[in-house]
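Project outcomes to date are best conveyed with an example. Our students and postdoctoral researchers have been running inverse folding experiments weekly, and each run begins with a structure described purely in tokens. The record below, which covers 99 residues, was selected by the lab manager from last quarter's runs and is presented without edits.
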């Protein structure tokens, strides 16, 4: 696995931390049938697999975030949530930089 792939992947340690932070439920609808595997900034856009970029979403909310025109609204809700959890949260720190 190359360095970029490793940086974008979500480790079990990060999943465990995010699962606890998000109270074991989808941060949008509070469904307990959720997983801590949604990138705020997508992997396809070099979004890192770090807690500040990962949230817990249920399948329905994750699908809406990834595949519908609701994405901008959902992205704002996720952004607000992450900012409330990390005082120094900054989108620029969530992207893989080669150099």
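After processing, the design step wrote out the following sequence:
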């Amino acid at each position: 696995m190359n360095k970029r792939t490793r940086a974008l992947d979500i480790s079990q340690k990060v999943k465990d931390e995010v699962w606890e932070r998000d109270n074991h439920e989808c941060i949008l609808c509070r469904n307990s049938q959720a997983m801590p595997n949604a990138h705020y900034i997508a992997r396809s856009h070099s979004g890192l697999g770090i807690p500040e970029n990962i949230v817990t979403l249920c399948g329905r909310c994750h699908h809406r975030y990834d595949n519908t025109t609701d994405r901008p609204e959902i992205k704002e809700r996720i952004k607000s949530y992450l900012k409330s959890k990390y005082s120094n949260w900054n989108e620029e720190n969530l992207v893989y930089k080669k150099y």
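Helices lie at 3-8, 12-21, 59-67, 71-85. The longest strand covers residues 34-39. The training component of this project remains on track.
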